[in-house]
Structure formats: C-alpha cells, structure tokens
Specification:
20 strands, alpha+beta, six-stranded antiparallel beta sheet, 31 helices
C-alpha cells in the first residue's frame, strides 16, 4: 500500500481529489456565510484558475525525455561540433577566395633531424615526398593520414600559407569524416601559457569558452574534456611561433607528455622559431615534419595573370612587371600571402604594378612587403560600392588593431575581436560611467513621463532642478554599485561568500549615505517615503540609495560587469516558441482586462507592451543557445531557483541596509532633539505658541494668521496640509485657509483641524506632517520631542518595511534574470551581427518580464497596504528601473556605450558593426563564429605598429551615400 502511494501517478490523483474536496468545502462555507452566489462563483473561479496554473506548471516541470547515455551524448556533441566548424571555416574559405580560381600550388618537402625526431617511436612507412598530384593543398589530408604517428609539424616562413593549409586541412578532414568521428578544431596557440596550464586543460577550456554546450559538466569533467579524452577532437595547433620564445621548451614538453594515440595533432610554426626551439635537442617525438617551399615565380605569375584585369595591349597589368621582375619582387612573390595582397592592391584601376620595378622606391623585399601591407586596406575599400572612405577605413582599423593587441601574454583573446568585449578598450572609469549613464537614460525616459503624466502613479519632483539632482544621485549610486557590487564576469563565483562580501559593501555604502542624511536632514518627525517636503540634498542622497538598491538587485540576479551575448532560451526547443506565444497573448489579454475593469493605465500598458514583446520574440528563433535545448521546464526551474535566492538575499540585504540607514539617521535626529534648548509651555517662538494638554501631549498654535493649502495626490487616500509657498509637488489644490493654525497629534500622526474648503473636509483633521516640517527649527524640535527609542523607531520602521519591499521586487527580478540567462553559442553563430540582434531581443524580453513581475509585486503591495502608507509611491518608483536599467547592463547595452566613445574619439565609425561586416566581406577581417580576426598576423602587426593617422581624416564617420544594410547597428 505504502509503495503504491510513492508512485507519481497515484500522488497526482490524490492531489486532484484533495483540491476538488477543498473547492466543495469552500463553496459550502461561502454559502453559509451568505456571501451570495456571485461571491461564491468568484472565489471558486479564482481558486480553480490558481489550481489550473499550478497543474500547468507541474506538467511543464516534468521531464519525459530520457537522458542519453554518455557515449551517445559525446557522439552527438561531436557531430554538432563538426557542423559548426564546417560552417565557420567554409564561410572563411569563400571570403578568402581560396577557390578563386583555385588554391595556389604550395609544395612541401620533408625535414629531418634536428627539426624532426631522429628515431621515430612508431614504426611505419615514411612520409613520401610530394608527387605531382600531391602539390596541392587539398591533398594535405592524405598526407596526414600517411603519417604513422598521427603527428605532423608544418613549417614555413611568414605568409608561406601555413594557416591556409590548416584551414584546408580542417575542411578536408570534415569532408571525409563519418558520424561519430574526430572533429578537427583550429586552435590559435597565442592564448596558451604552457608554463602554468597543461595542454589538455587549455584545449578543454578553449573549447568550452568558444563552444558553450561543451561547458556542460557531467560528473567531474566538462563535455569538452570528455571529447578530448575520448579521441573525438583532432587539434590543429596554429602558430607555435606566437608563443613566447622562453616557453618553447616547456610547450614541447607538454605536447610530448600529453599527446597519445587518441589525440593526434597538426602543428604549424615558422621555420626559424622551430629551429630555435629544437636547437637544444627537444623535438616533438615521433612527429613527421614538412617544410612549405616558397612559391616559384611561374606559379605566382600564372595566378596573378589569370586573376588580373586586362590591359589594352592584349595582356594584363601584371604581364610586363612579371616578364622581368627585380630580385626583391621575385622574392616577395614567393609568399602566398604577398601574392594575395598584390592581387587585391593592383585590382584597383588607379594602380599599376609596374611601380614595384622602381629600385629607388622599392630597393628591398621588406620595402615591397610594407607597401603591400599598407596599401591593402585602402585598396580593399576603394571600389565604387564602398560606403566608407579608404583613408578613414584604414585609420579606424589601425586603431582597432592597436586596441586588440594583447595586453598580457597568454590571454586567450589575443588577436580576436568580439563585439561584446569592445567596452574593454575604453578607459577604466568610462567602463563604469558609460553603462551607468545609459541605464540612467533608459530609466529617465520612462520615469520622467510617468512622473509628469502618470496621474500620481510615480511621485513627481518639486522642481526641474530637483529632478536633475535626484538623477545625479541615482547615477552616483549606480556607478558605485556597478564597480563594487556586480560580479566581474558571468563565470565569477556567486556563492554565499561573494554574497556576504557584497552585503558588507552595500551596508558600508548605505552607512555613508545615512551619515550624510543624518548630518544634513535628520528625520526629526519620522521617516516618510512620499508626499513630504524634500530639500535638494535629500533628493541627491535618495537617488544614491536607489542606485545602490538597483545595483544590489542586479548583483544578486547575477548580472556581471562584462556580460556575454544572450540567446533566446526557446531557440532550440520545439515547444518553446508556442508556449511563449501563448504566454504573450495571455499577458496582453490581462493588460486589456486590467484597463477595462480597473482603468489602471500604467499596469495595463506594461502588460500589453511586455506581451507584445514576448509574441514578437517568439517569432524569432535567434542564435543557438550555448546550453543544451532549454524548454519551458528548464526556464521555470531557473526562475524558481532565482526567485528563492533573490528573495532571501535581497530581503536580508535590503532590511539590513534599511535598518542601518534608519538607525544612523534616527540617532542623529535623537541627538538634535535632545540637545535642543529647553522651552517652556506657553512660550511664543517666532509666532508660534507652545502648548501642552493635561495628558502631556504637545501642540503648537500660531499667534498670527497663516496661509495653509490643502493638497491632494492621486496615490494618497487623504489630502494633506502644507504651508503656502512650500516646495512640494501635488496633483491638485483642494482649497486654502488663512487664519489661526493649530498642529496636534491625532490617531498617531500630526494633524490640524481644517477650517477651509471644500465642505467635505471642513472641521475634519487632515495630515499636517509637512506643516510640522516647515515650522521654525526651535518650534519643530520642541513639538517632536519624545524618547530616544521612539525617535529611532520612527526612523527605522518605515525603512525596514521598504527593505521588505526590496526583497519582494528583487526576488522577482532575480528569478527572471536567472531563468533567461542563456549564453549564446558564439562559435556556431551565423555572425557577429546575428549574435548582436539575438542579444538585443533577449535583453528586451528579459527586461520586460522583470518589469512585469516587479509591477505585479507592486500591485500586491498596494492592495495589502493603504494608499496613505509610509511606503508612499516607493514601490512604483523602484519597479520601473528594474526593467529599464538592466538594458544597459547587457552586452548590447555596453556595446552602445563603447560605440559612442569610439566614434566621439575618432577610433571607429558610428555604424561600427556595419563597418566590421563590410571589412569582413572585403577580406580584411576573417570571421570565426561571432568573432572577427584580422586576415593575417602580419597585417594586424603592421596596422597596430603604424601611426593611426597622418593628418586630419575628417569627421568621425565619413561615409558615402548608401542605404544601410539590413540589421545594421
């Protein structure tokens, strides 16, 4: 019997029976209470809808698909990886025009000791010398298969075609690969530090970093490490010469110690660097070594002549220069890289390659190479269809090349341009201030209209200058929070220890703000969070507090300072888009219903906008996610974990920080109250008589007529009195009164008996908190005198309630941000612009959902508290920035700050992504998934080492008239 109860099916049926019985009991109880049929139906409908939602959620959380076995999972991962690599390098081969009209015939020769091992450890036939049919790059796969050890070292001079050979090897191996076979992966060795990082560990980390699905952990190993250990990865290590010379011996030791029969390798290196590395006797054991030969002049001549424009004399522009080339020119044309550059440079009709024969201008081969490297970028942008001026394009690429130079040896992004890492080129201060300014702009764009036209849903400022001061404080708090509270990267540890450090920093910052508040404006009356006269200093410090609170919420949610591009979580789920469309339609319907039944424009508008964003995003598949297929169940689990973590952390930090602020300011207020000069009952001070009732209650009465205004706010249930001329915002003025004013305690608050119009409030006590605030200081200090404990309690209690509100809003925001925190698969991406568009869509959806849930929490708080509660409109003012400020903390938002800075300083055009895409199309850059790289290391070094400008290039974005490309940013 008990075993049967453990079955999920039985437990589900018991649950449904219990719910049905509860509904029957609820109907009977409501009928007996006389609530009427309508009330009974309403409650049953509400509970039924809640139960249906719970059942739908439980159904989504159930996993029905069995997990694949380890071997099957590895084979599937290898096949997916092969598809991504093939797409990546096929596109690059087309852009490099490797098949136009055909690859250059690069030949090689076998190298023996000391460059190769003297006694191979593995027996087998020796690598044959290339035959006539082997003198093509597409035969490199057969050459590698003939190597018995599975280890091949390819040597060559700079520009000899080593990287092109590696690309051809990758594509050829993939073409011959069978499902489940090893996948060739090109690894630039510039990012490896062999002194501190083992080879297999670095390969696994590089795979996991660039191919996010391989970062999944099973047991104690990542999937990337599993593929390496299972022999499903064939590393093609490009650029051994790019390692520091002092590490060559260590690197060879790592290679010999960690390579085995299941991990073959192809290694490329410059001949001089390999010679130096093996001069001490250390070699790659059992490896065959081949050395690429320079191109012979007939091969270079045939290639250039066959691809050149025709000349009026019947030949081509290259016919005369190559008929009798100078020795430096013949030497230069022995490099495939230089042949390719010469082809591009002299495709321009304004140039004549005969100039290369001038011995005065080009006395050496080095001078010709520098000329071709310098002329390549302007020539690539020189055609009539180019949007960019060649000189400006050259200048911008020089700046980018210098900014992309490795800042320290061993960085994995040494020669790569990832658009989400461009903010790193800004000065350190701008990396914080830039996103904070964008967050402030996004928040102000929504908050200011709501404050002015929102009919009291958000408290307005009393003066435009107060708004500026308040937003400046918000910027200050955001800057501190972004710099000190947020984790550095998405992979930074986010356990209890980091949360504790963040809480301490948050509390310390709150204490500093509290001291400033206590010195400048101590809460003598009580801490009130709305409808109160606010000095300018308080506006600034309140803004600082809000900036700190927002930053804390984002830190708990796991938003990093350097975010990765996001993917749409439903991109790989068959049911995800349908579920998202249904959710979006439900949210839109809810917004329309709220507007129709409650006439609440702001919540209704939020629902409609968020729902439309969800529907629009569901129609876009976007880039693949770096994690395995994310379905509704995974999203809901992530939301649940983020909600619990966020609610607990934000509540604890919010309540603690609020208590610290209340305690510190309350202590200052208590000191000021109890250190004031004693005054006697009946004394008149500055036109106010001090009075005391027989029970000891204090009050004050004016000795001359005072003009008082009865003002109202939509968000408050009752109007409040304020002295005429006081600087405070109100929705309207109900009436005025001029005469004697008496302020006293009524129902636990300061009040005055209203004697003016309108008739509805005449003779009734109205809120006089702001009248007390405006009293002369000696009068105010005498009137609010009370025990120290009461002063501190009045300052702390409203702020602690605000801290609980922070926990509720922060928990909902953390749930959304963690549920939708799905990194994009940057290696299988269609391109950088596609990744950027997907990140933008995911960021907008995430922000809309966060604002929607935070708004729902605010509606619950409003329904549970009276309209005149101490929270005022703080819940709404905190809800709005939760969705807007986070936009600037995404990879897309941070790129916006970087683009502005790069364009203003003349380092890049305003339409940066479009320019990079054009440079890639023209062969200046190559694309690796979502990354860009310069075509060749020598080109990068030449651009980085050459002065960026030789004059004033003109405006930052000198473009010709052209329609922007689709999706241009």
């Amino acid at each position: 019997m008990w075993a049967a109860l453990r079955e999920t099916r039985v437990q589900r049926r018991i649950g449904f029976c219990a719910v049905a019985a509860s509904l029957v009991a609820l109907a009977a109880a409501l009928s007996r209470r006389g609530g009427g049929a309508d009330t009974t139906s309403m409650w049953i409908s509400a509970v039924s809808a809640f139960v249906s939602l719970c059942a739908f959620t439980a159904d989504l959380l159930r996993d029905t698909a069995p997990a694949p076995s380890g071997a099957a999972r590895r084979r599937q991962a290898a096949d997916d990886l092969a598809e991504a690599v093939h797409t990546q390098w096929s596109d690059e081969a087309r852009l490099r025009r490797l098949q136009d009209p055909e690859p250059l015939n690069v030949t090689w020769t076998r190298a023996g000791p000391p460059l190769a091992d003297r006694r191979p450890l593995r027996r087998g036939p020796a690598l044959p010398e290339p035959r006539d049919g082997d003198q093509r790059l597409d035969r490199i796969v057969e050459t590698f298969r003939a190597v018995p050890s599975g280890r091949l070292v390819v040597l060559g001079e700079p520009g000899a075609g080593k990287t092109v050979l590696a690309v051809q090897f990758v594509l050829g191996t993939l073409a011959a690969r069978r499902p489940g076979g090893p996948v060739p992966i090109l690894f630039p060795l510039a990012g490896w530090d062999p002194r501190h990082v083992p080879l297999r560990q670095w390969l696994a980390e590089r795979l996991a970093a660039e191919y996010r699905p391989l970062a999944a952990v099973a047991g104690e190993r990542t999937l990337a490490r599993e593929l390496l250990d299972a022999g499903l990865v064939l590393p093609v290590l490009d650029g051994f010469d790019e390692l520091p010379a002092a590490t060559h011996g260590t690197a060879l030791g790592r290679l010999n110690g960690e390579l085995d029969d299941r991990l073959p390798v192809v290694l490329t290196c410059r001949t001089t660097d390999w010679t130096r590395a093996t001069s001490g006797g250390a070699v790659l054991t059992s490896a065959d070594v081949v050395r690429l030969r320079p191109l012979d002049l007939p091969t270079a001549r045939d290639h250039l002549v066959s691809t050149a424009r025709a000349h009026p004399d019947g030949g081509t522009v290259w016919t005369r220069p190559l008929a009798a080339p100078t020795a430096p020119l013949a030497e230069v044309l022995g490099s495939p890289l230089m042949v390719s550059l010469a082809r591009t440079v002299y495709a321009d009709a304004s140039r004549d390659p005969s100039e290369l024969l001038d011995p005065d201008t080009f006395p050496t081969a080095e001078r010709i190479e520098e000329h071709l490297l310098d002329a390549f970028v302007p020539a690539a942008f020189a055609d009539a269809d180019s949007t960019w001026r060649p000189g400006a394009a050259h200048q911008w690429l020089c700046h980018l090349a210098r900014d992309l130079a490795p800042r320290r040896p061993g960085t994995s992004t040494a020669w790569r341009l990832a658009w989400w890492e461009l903010p790193a080129v800004m000065p350190a201060a701008l990396r914080v201030v830039g996103p904070a300014l964008l967050a402030l702009a996004a928040t102000a764009a929504l908050l200011v209209p709501l404050a002015v036209y929102g009919r009291g849903v958000v408290g307005n400022w009393d003066h435009p200058l107060s708004a500026v001061v308040n937003l400046a404080g918000l910027l200050t708090g955001l800057c501190f929070g972004l710099a000190r509270l947020l984790p550095a990267t998405a992979t930074s540890p986010q356990g209890p220890r980091r949360l504790a450090r963040m809480a301490l920093r948050m509390t310390a910052a709150a204490a500093i703000v509290a001291v400033a508040l206590g010195v400048l404006v101590p809460p003598l009356v009580s801490s009130r969070l709305g409808a109160v006269i606010t000095p300018r200093a308080t506006w600034y410090l309140n803004g600082c507090c809000f900036g700190l609170i927002l930053s804390m919420m984002f830190a708990v949610a796991g938003l990093p300072r350097r975010p990765l591009p996001l993917a749409l979580p439903w991109a790989g789920s068959p049911s995800g888009p349908t579920a998202l469309r249904a959710l979006g339609a439900l949210v839109v319907f809810t917004g329309l219903a709220v507007h129709g039944y409650a006439d609440a424009a702001v919540p209704a508008g939020t629902c409609v906008v968020a729902g439309l964003l969800l529907v629009a995003a569901s129609l876009r598949r976007g880039e693949r996610a770096a994690a395995p297929c994310t379905g509704p169940a995974d999203v809901l689990r992530g939301f649940r974990r983020g909600l619990v973590r966020g609610f607990v952390a934000c509540t604890l930090i919010g309540v603690t920080g609020s208590a610290v602020v209340g305690g510190v300011t309350g202590a200052f207020a208590a000191y000021e109250i109890h250190s004031a000069r004693p005054a006697a009952t009946g004394e008149v001070i500055e036109g106010w008589r001090l009075e005391r009732t027989p029970d000891g209650a204090r009050s004050v009465r004016s000795t001359r007529p005072r003009q008082v205004v009865l003002a109202e706010r939509t968000a408050l249930a009752r109007p409040f009195a304020v002295m005429a001329g006081a600087r405070i915002w109100a929705d309207g003025k109900l009436g005025t009164y001029t005469g004697e004013v008496r302020v006293h305690r009524a129902d636990g608050r300061w009040a005055m008996d209203w004697r003016g119009g309108p008739e509805r409030w005449r003779g009734k006590p109205v809120d006089a908190h702001n009248v007390v605030v405006a009293l002369p200081e000696p009068v105010r200090l005498w009137l609010v005198h009370r025990p120290v404990g009461a002063v501190i309690r009045d300052a702390v209690v409203p702020l602690v309630a605000f801290g609980a509100l922070i926990g509720a809003i922060g928990g909902s925001a953390a749930g959304v941000y963690r549920a939708l925190n799905t990194p994009s698969d940057t290696i299988r991406a269609a391109g950088p612009q596609s990744t950027l568009r997907t990140d933008r869509a995911a960021t907008l959806v995430r922000g809309a959902l966060a604002a929607l849930l935070a708004g729902a929490v605010c509606l619950v708080v409003i329904s549970l508290t009276s309209r005149g509660s101490a929270l005022g409109t703080m819940h709404t003012e905190l809800w709005v920035p939760v969705g807007t400020s986070a936009l600037a903390l995404s990879a897309w938002g941070r790129l916006g700050a970087a683009r502005i800075w790069l364009a203003v300083t003349g380092r890049a055009p305003w339409r940066l992504m479009r320019f990079l895409a054009d440079a890639h199309r023209r062969g200046v850059l190559r694309q690796s998934g979502a990354h860009y790289e310069f075509r060749h290391l020598r080109l990068h070094q030449r651009l980085a080492g050459r002065p960026a400008t030789t004059g004033t290039p003109g405006p930052p974005d000198p473009v010709r008239e052209a329609a922007p490309a689709d999706g241009a940013v």
